[in-house]
Amino acid sequence: MKWIVRGAVALLLAVVVLIGLAWTIPKERIARIAADRIEAATGRAVTIGGPVSATLWPRLGVRAEGIALANAAWSEAGPMLAAAAFEVGLSPAILLGGDLRIDSLAVEGARLVLERRTDGTGNWTFDVADAGDTSGGGTEPGSAMKGLAVGAATLADTEIVLIDHATARRIELRDVNLETGFAGPDMPVELAGTARIGERPVRFDARVDALAPLLDGGPTGLSAVLEGDATSLSFEGRLGLDPLSLAGAAEIASSDGFALFGSLGVTPPALPPGLGAARVDVAAAVTLAPEGTIHLRDIVAELDGNRITGRLDLDPAGERPRLAGALAADALAFPGAKAGGADSGEDDEGRSAEPIDASGLFALDAELTVETGTVAYGDVRIDALSAALALENGRAVLRLDPLRAYGGAVTGRVVLNGRGELSGRAVLDIAGLQLQPLLTDLAGQDRLSATADASIDLSSSGESVLALMAGLEGETSVRLGPGTFAGLDIAGMVRTRDLGYRGEGQRTVFDALSASFDVAQGVARGDDLTLDAPYLSATGAGAIDLGRQSLDYRLIPTLRAEDDGEGLSVPLLIDGPWHDPRVRPDLEYVARQRIEAVGDRAEDRVREKLAEELDLAPERLDSREAIEDAIRERVGDRLRGLLGDR
After folding, report:
1. Cα radius of gyration (the chain)
2. d(CA 227, CA 177)
3. At what angle do helices 603-614 and 587-598 cross, to 10 degrees?
C-alpha cells in the first residue's frame, strides 16, 4: 500500500515540476536560437511577429506565430517564406550549447516564394556573407548547417508560388501538404506531399542524397515522381542548382494530353493520332547542361502503340530553339484522314478552303533524320522511309532518300516556306511504282495495272489547300510499262459504238504509255500522250485540273486488223471527276475532222465530197446532224469489217 501512495506522490510532484518548467523555460531564447541558426544557414533575416509560447508535451519546444524569412535583396515578391504558425520540437541538448537537433518542425498556413530572375539566379541561392560575417570570406551554406538535423517536418495548408522572370511565367500551388525530415545536412532527405494546381490535384515524392551540397549549388543525387490525374513524370539521377543542371533517367507518361502541363503554365503539345494523341510513354537518359542545352539519349517512346527510338538535342538559346537528332522505328501505323463535314470548310472533294496556320514553321529550327520500316496511313502503306528534315527560320526542306512503297522508290525533296505568303515546291523522281495496289489503297480503284516511272517539278503559293492546288505551276511526266486497263475494252467501245460500254470482265492490254504535262494555275495540259498495244495504238491530248480533280481529255485510239497494218481511228472522250470519269467515243470529233479535211470550199462541194467518200446521195447530207450520223454509221461498218470475229 505504501508503494502505491509513494508512486502517486511522485507523479504529483512530476506534474508540479512540469507546470513549473512551463513558466520558467526560456521560450524567447529558444526561438531566438532557432532564428539565429536559420539566419546563419541562409544569410536571410528571420522575424517573429507574433506571440511565442513554450510546449512541454508531447515534446519540448516552442510555438511562434507570424514567422517570416526574408527574400533575396533583388526580389520584390515579399518574404521568401511567411508562416502563420511555426512550431519546433527541440532536443534538450540545445539548451546546453549542443548541436541544433530538431525533433519535429511544423509549419502551418505558409506562403513560399521560389523566384528566378532573368540571369538565372534563384532566390534559393543564399549569400551567407550578408548574415553578419565579418571575416571577409563569408561562410559556406553547407558548413553553416553542420549539426542541423530535423527528425520530422510537416508543411500544412501552404501556398507555393513559382516565378520565372526569364519566361514571365508564374505558377501557384495551393493546399500544399508535405512531410520530410533529415538526420543531418549530409544525410539523405525524403519528401512526400500533395498539392492542388488550379483545380487539379497532384502528388509528389522526392529523395535528395544530401541537402547541404544541393544548397551549395550541387550536384547531388535526386529521385522524384510527380503525378497529376493521368500524367506522371519521374527522374532518377543528379541535380545541381547553381547553375541549374541535371543528368539521369527520366520517364513521362500521359493519357489525357498532358493536361497537367496546362495547369503548370506550359501549353500542352497538340500531338496527332498515332503520335501520342491518346497515350504517351517516353523513357530517356536526360542531361540538362549548365549552359542550358538539353540532351536526350536512348529514347524509347511508345506513342499510341507506335514505338520510336533515337536521340535529340535541344538548344533553347537564340532567336528560336534549335532541335537536332535522329529517330527510328521498325513500324508505324496512323489512322486515315477523316472526311470533312458540312461545316469543315472543305469542298466536295475534301480540299480545305480554311487558311493554313504556318506559325509552327517558326516554332524552332531543326535538323532531323528519320528511318522507318513499314508506315501505314489508313489503307496506304509505305515499305520503308529514309528522310531528312531541315527547318530554318520558317523554311522546311524534307529530303526523301528514298521512300519505298508499292514496289517502287521515291527520291527528291519537298520544300515548304512560311516566310511571307505560304509557298511550296516538290521535286520528285518516282521509279518502279506498282499502280494497281497503290490506286486500290489510295482511291479504291483497281482498273489500272502497270509499273510507273514519273518525274515531278511543281511549285505553288497560297493560304489554303485549295489555293495551293489551284496555283500549281511546273511540269511533270509519266511513263508506264506493260499493263492493262481492267474493265475498259477500248477496242470494244469503238467497235460497238456504245457510249457507256466498258466491257464487263474485259480489259485493254498495252505495252507502254507515256505523257508529259505543263502545269499552270493548277491545270496540267499535254498533247504528247502515246499508247502502244497489240492491234491498238493511241495518242492523247487534253487537260487535268489538279485543283478541281477533274479530267477533260481526248484519247485517239487506232485499231488495226493486223498488228502492223493500217487501222481505223475513233477518238474517245474522258471527262468528269477523277473518282468516276466518263469514257465515251467522240464521233462528233470524227465528223468535224472529216469536214475540216475537205478544206475551206463551197458548202455544196463539201457535201458532194463527203457523199462520195461515204457512198451516199448528196441530198441525204442536208444537215450537220445528218452528216454526223452518216459518218458514225460508216465508221461502225468499217470497224466491224476490220475486226471481223476478233
Report:
1. 42
2. 15
3. 120
Strand partners, 519: 474, 524
DSSP state of 318: S
CA distances (Å), origin 628, targets 606, 613, 616? 14, 13, 13
**Dist. CA 38–CA 43, nearest whole Å:** 8
CA atoms in the 13 A half-sphere facing the CB of 362: 8
Handedness of CA 432, 437, 441, 446 (dihedral sign): positive
Cell numbers of 602, please?
463551197
- Which tens digit of pLDDT belongs to each residue from 472-519? 999 999 999 899 887 666 666 655 655 455 555 577 788 999 999 999
Cell numbers linked to 339 = 472526311
- Give the span between the Cα atoms of 44 and 36, in whole angstroms: 10
What number of other Cβ atoms are within 10 A of residue 500's Cβ?
8
Extended beta strands in 44-146, E state = 46-48, 52-55, 61-69, 81-90, 101-116
Summary mean pLDDT of the chain: 79
Contact 428, 451 (CB under 8 A): no
Convert the pLDDT of each residue in 210-260 to its tens digit. 877 776 767 889 999 999 888 999 999 998 877 888 999 999 999 988 888
**How far, in Å, are 249, 253, 257, 268, 564 from residue 271 at the CA level?**
23, 13, 8, 9, 61
Positions of E strands within 165-266: 169-182, 189-197, 200-208, 220-228, 231-241, 244-254
609 SS3 class: helix
H or E element at residue 584: strand 582-585
Among 309, 252, 308, 254, smallest CA distance to 279 is for 254
SS3 317: coil
Q: Give the whole-angstrom CA distance, residue 283 versus residue 285.
A: 7
Strands 512-520 and 448-449: unpaired
Helix, coil or strand: residue 16: helix
* Phi-psi category of residue 318: left, alpha or beta, with phi > 0 → left and psi -120 to 50 → alpha: left
264-278, 308-322, 397-411 — which is least confidently predicted?
A: 264-278
In angstroms, the CA 509 to CA 494 distance is 15
**Pick from 411, 367, 410: nearest CA to 389:** 367
Residue type, 172: E
CB count within 10 Å of CB 98 equals: 11
- For the cut 50, the answer to whether the pLDDT of residue 139 exceeds it is no
Packing angle, helices 587-598 and 624-643, rounded to 10: 110
- At 34, is the secondary structure helix, strand, or coil? helix
- State the residue for C-alpha cell 548547417: 145
Quote the Cα angle for 326-329-334, to 5°. Answer: 115
SS3 of 28, please?
Answer: helix
- In angstroms, the CA 28 to CA 35 distance is 10
Taking the C-alpha atoms of residue 506 and residue 513, their distance in angstroms, rounded to an integer, is: 19
Are the CB atoms for 385 and 343 separated by under 8 Å? Answer: no
| Mean pLDDT value of segment 522-546 | 90
Q: Where are the alpha helices (DSSP H) in 104-229?
A: 141-144, 211-215
CA atoms within 13 A on the CB side of 283: 4
Domain chopping of the chain, boundaries: 1-166, 188-317, 590-643
* Amino acid identity at 581: P
